[in-house]
Amino acid sequence: MVGALVAGLSVVPQTVGTANADPEPSTKELRTKAFKLADQLEQLTEQYNGLKVKLAQSQRAAKVATDNAERQEKTLQGLREKVGSLAATSYMQGGSDPTVSFVASQDPQAVLDQASTLRYFAKRDSSKVLILMQAMQAAQRARKSAEARSTQVKELRTQLDSQRKKVTDAYEKTRGKLVERDPSMLAKLPVIGTGKAAQALRYAMGKLGDPYVWGAAGPSTFDCSGLTMWAYRQVGINLPHYTGSQFNAGTHVSRSQLQPGDLVFFYSDLHHMGMYIGGGKMIHAPHTGDVVKIASMSGRPFAGGVRVA
């Protein structure tokens, strides 16, 4: 499994950096690169999601094994107390009963590591101590194994998250160049991400060109808060049909923290809003006589951003 996961980390493109002397790529080349990066990002995102599942499984296994080991340790402690008098008697008689040594020891594993002790217990296979010893050892091995798996998956997830960021940055840079040459390309390029915010943004992008109608919330006409409400409803998130209420429907983020799908608000009274796309652009339903379109966020006083998913 580890080999397969590591192999999946090698999909980061080697063409992210471009030498200064290289000629500028054509629009067609940039578009091809953008789609390729978006596809790679989707692969990395799914691998990341898979690792999150594996990490949760490993952490649950580690907790179960740890709880089991703790129960065995408590049982051993109870047995230590019961044989305290036996240990004293053995000492008085100058004996060295391995059973007493094992149970009374604060480091029973050190006692078990002695070959003579193991042979002794093997001969007394009906001993409760032998059963306890085996259970405790199994619990400790399971705990260590589960903890090792959790650590391994965490490390792989960190590596994968770093590579996702590299591909995302490369995609944003490529998309930015394309949009500078042809602003209409923004509507034709993939919306990256697999979360509900990205999914809602895809629904909103599918409404480009639909007319603005005051008080409308889809499916074919919209006002500004009606568009965002309709888009998020498609992914199972219910928002109120009012900019002021949507402004308080999630976590507030700064302009520099905006991600695709975040809600963006303008003017002090929050009377206009849209959905962030990236690169300083948003999709919105502007006003009567206009249609759902992509526009720059500049030119309007930014009041805040809200992340609802």
Write up this protein.
This protein is α+β, with helices and mostly antiparallel strands. It has 2 domains: 1-190, Helix Hairpins (Orthogonal Bundle), CATH 1.10.287; 195-309, endopeptidase domain like (from Nostoc punctiforme) (endopeptidase fold (from Nostoc punctiforme)), CATH 3.90.1720.10. 55% of the residues lie in helices and 9% in strands. The chain is built from 10 helices and 6 strands; from the N terminus they run ααααααααααββββββ. The chain has helices at 2-7, 27-82, 84-92, 98-104, 108-112, 115-123, 128-181, 196-205, 224-233, 243-246, and strands spanning 251-253, 263-266, 272-278, 281-284, 293-296, 302-307. The chain has a 6-stranded antiparallel beta sheet, covered by helices on one side. β4 and β5 form a beta hairpin. The longest helix is centred in the first third of the chain and has 56 residues, at 27-82. The protein starts with a helix and ends with a strand. 27% of the residues are buried. Residues 1-19 and 83-95 have low confidence and may be disordered.
